[in-house]
Write a structure and sequence with these properties.
CATH class of the largest domain: Alpha Beta
Radius of gyration: 19 Å
CATH superfamily of the largest domain: D-amino Acid Aminotransferase, subunit A, domain 2
CATH topology of the largest domain: D-amino Acid Aminotransferase, Chain A, domain 2
Mean pLDDT: 94
Distance between the termini: 26 Å
Strand content: 25-35%
Number of strands: 16
CATH architecture of the largest domain: Alpha-Beta Barrel
Number of helices: 7
Length: about 300
């Protein structure tokens, strides 16, 4: 992890528009459309022992997100997969985090941007854990966010798009200022949606309940954990979940590429004790990423 060092001062190489360039030279112009109008999509991927977990699925989602933002990535999915592997190898990354992104450039400045170049870049850096080991063992604490996930008729809610994370940043800043680790976001209907960068699961009566992802990302780690639960004969229920149902949950955890599987100890005034279901799925997820290392 970068620690106190600024990310633009890290060493290494970044893949940008078809070639590797020195880290400090991977730049975009101030008038890039992606900065001013949020026309940017991205992915977050983990490297375990030099291999990117679920690389093809992440690349497929990057392209799907781009299509939702009317962007045509000027490379094939196979070329982007190879570029991801190339940048991991070039930086000698064993365990880390990969960030591919595609954004509109600076050829036109204004809301309309049909002629703008679609730029693509991929960076990788060390990032061992999103939450500290101590926090993961005890379970993290979530604030209840005031910002809500929008109606999908008002934003491309199923894209992994940069602009959709503005309310996540605001919610996480507020949570951290109050001593929480993260925040739980509701959607525009008042239903439980997700944390600021991870999906959420509730253990209720021995079953695994998770919100239907109709206005937020159906996470790749989310789907992976659902598969692991089914392998364990744990029933998985996708449905609308209201906040007062938190009182019925015996365990709660979040999932995401960065968060992996992380237990939750508290959400607002609700408290939980990480138990068997969470522990088993944490172990199974760890075993799965180790298995792909040797594949």
């Amino acid at each position: 992890m970068a620690g106190s060092q600024s990310y633009d001062e890290l060493d290494g190489q970044i893949w940008m528009n078809g070639k590797l360039v020195p880290w400090a030279e991977a730049k975009a112009h101030y008038l890039t459309h992606g900065l001013h109008y949020a026309s940017c999509v991205f992915e977050g991927q983990r490297v375990y022992s030099g291999r990117i977990f679920k690389l093809e699925e992440h690349t497929q989602r990057l392209f799907a997100s781009a299509r939702m933002l009317d962007m045509k990535i000027p490379f094939s999915e196979a070329e982007i997969n190879e570029a991801n592997r190339q940048v991991v190898a070039a930086n000698n990354m064993v365990d880390g985090y990969v960030r591919p992104a595609a954004w509109r450039g600076s050829e036109m400045m204004g809301v309309s941007a049909q002629k703008n170049r679609i730029n693509v870049a991929i960076a990788v850096w060390q990032w061992p854990a999103y939450f500290s080991p101590q926090a993961r063992m005890k379970g993290i604490r979530l604030d209840l966010a005031t910002w809500r996930r929008p109606d999908p008729r008002t934003a491309p809610a199923l894209a992994k798009a940069a602009g959709l994370y503005m309310i996540c940043t605001l919610s996480k800043h507020t949570a951290e200022s109050k001593g929480f680790d993260d925040a739980l976001m509701l959607d525009w209907r008042g239903q439980i949606a997700e944390a600021t960068g991870a999906n959420i699961f509730l253990v209720i009566g021995g079953e695994l309940h998770t919100p239907t992802p109709d206005c937020f990302l159906d996470g790749i780690t989310r789907r992976t954990v659902m598969g692991l639960a089914k392998n364990r004969q744990i029933k998985v229920v996708e449905r609308a979940i209201m906040p007062d149902e938190l009182g019925k949950a015996s365990e709660v955890f979040i999932t995401g590429t960065a968060a992996e599987v992380t237990p939750v100890a508290a959400i607002g005034d609700y408290t939980f004790t990480p138990g068997r279901v969470c522990q088993v799925l944490m172990q199974d997820y760890e075993a799965l990423v180790r298995e792909q290392k040797a594949a």
